[in-house]
Amino acid sequence: MLTLPPKVTPRAWERLSEIGAQAQGKALRIAVEGGGCSGFQYEIALDDPKEDDLVLEGSGEKVVVDSVSLPFLADAVIDFADELIGARFVIENPNATSSCGCGTSFSI
Prior knowledge:
single chain, 108 residues
């Protein structure tokens, strides 16, 4: 079965440009770690790309996903939401069977 890489929305690329991630030599790292109230949680940070990362590029910016996290993020959508309660990168993950209200914790 073919595994599709995550997709990044134009809003997310635009926000990365506003932050100036590439100008700082950084990429947006999306990782999945054990923990959170649902079993897994997303870690989102500006970081240096590493050799075994999947690198997604757009608008002069980069989003990176490590090889361990990649299967958990297959066909996910990385977006940026600017809402009354705050602004943040969000992940719409079709692999998650349930998620927590915080938006960073999920189960598969």
